[in-house]
Structure formats: C-alpha cells, structure tokens
Amino acid sequence: EVQLVESGGGLVQPGGSLRLSCAASGFTFSSYNMKWVRQAPGRGLEWVSSINSGGGTIYYADSVKGRFTLSRDNAKNSLYLQMNSLRDDDTAVYYCARVYISGSNAMDVWGQGTTVTVSS
Amino acid sequence: QSVLTQPPSVSAAPGQKVTISCSGSSSNIGNNYVSWYQHLPGTAPKLLIYENNKRPSGIPDRFSGSKSGTSATLGITGLQTGDEADYYCGTWDSSLKGVVFGGGTKLTVL
Question: Can you give the pLDDT at residue A25?
C-alpha cells in the first residue's frame, strides 16, 4: 500500500525547534518529488516547501524561508522538515505529500498530518 | 489573502451540478497546470484533478476540470451528501517560485 506517515509534531514554545519526519512506503520514494503543506486552524491549505527527487532542488514559502530546512534520505525512504525559530503562526497541521507527475505539481498521496502547536 | 481566488462557499441539492471557480494570473494559472483537491476536516486532502482536466485513477467522472486563460473551474455532477467538503485549487506560481492554493470553497449539499 502506498503510504506516507508523518511524525514529530508537538507543543513547542515560540522560538523553539522541531523536526518533522515523513516515512514513505509502497512506492519508489527516490523517484518522486515531495512537498510539505500545512493548514493552520480555521485557514486553508498553505504550501511550505518542495524538494525534487534527488534532493538537489528545494523551494520554500517566503513565510518559512531562513527558518525551515527541507531534506530527504532516499536510502531511508524519508523526508524531513527542520523547523527553527518557530512562531505562533506556524501552528498548523503539517502534511507531507508526493508529487504525482514531475512538472504538474499535483499531489496524489498525502499523509494524515502531524500537528504542530507553537505556544507559551 | 490567497493568490488564487475561490468563492468561500457554494451549495446545491443532491443530484444537481455545481461549479467552483478559481481565478489567478499569468504567473500561475495562465502558464501552469491546475490541480483540484477535496479536503474533509481531519483527513488527508484528496487529489481530484491534475493537469487542468485529468482525473487520477479511482476518481469518478462526476468530477471534471477545465481551464481558460487565467481561470480554472471544477465541476461536480450528480451531487451526493458525501461530496460535502472543502475544495481547493492549486498551481505553481512562476514569479513566487512556489505552489499557490486558493482559499478553499466549502461545498454544502442541501
């Protein structure tokens, strides 16, 4: 079964750090571009970051640039999002997603999400 | 304020048809593929349409997509109560160098 499972969310104080992980199974992880998307309480979907299949091309939303770092380990079928200098407005459910076809940016497989709460 | 503009809500009766619009600009919809997602609270979003008008395997043909210029439309026919959800359009923005989403449209099946 094709699956993505996020972990690493939790409660953190403003200014703190968290590392999210996304474990992939059921498909050739190293062949796919991947993304993180978040949804803050009462808000819509917001793209966070993208990485290509080889890990050499990474993009970030302006709202997280300089604070978040996206990486992947194809040998471990895993995607990581290192989040530093967290702010209240980073509170959200974070989803990792697989890009269906390179160039389309359509995301066909999503995890169930991990919740990040930034609060003092 | 989302880069792509969707109506906040739409509604229709069971069995009827509804369309959801998504308006953007030349830097996003005008020159890139549009995708549509269905999102039920507490669940993972589901891809309904990719590359403007293609359906992934398993998505019924009640769902359709189209694009014209800098706007895109999702159509849903034969509405069912199970279709009640939030619907989002998304695409790449060549100027922002990132994915942009619409603000989401809440579908109510009366």
Answer: 98
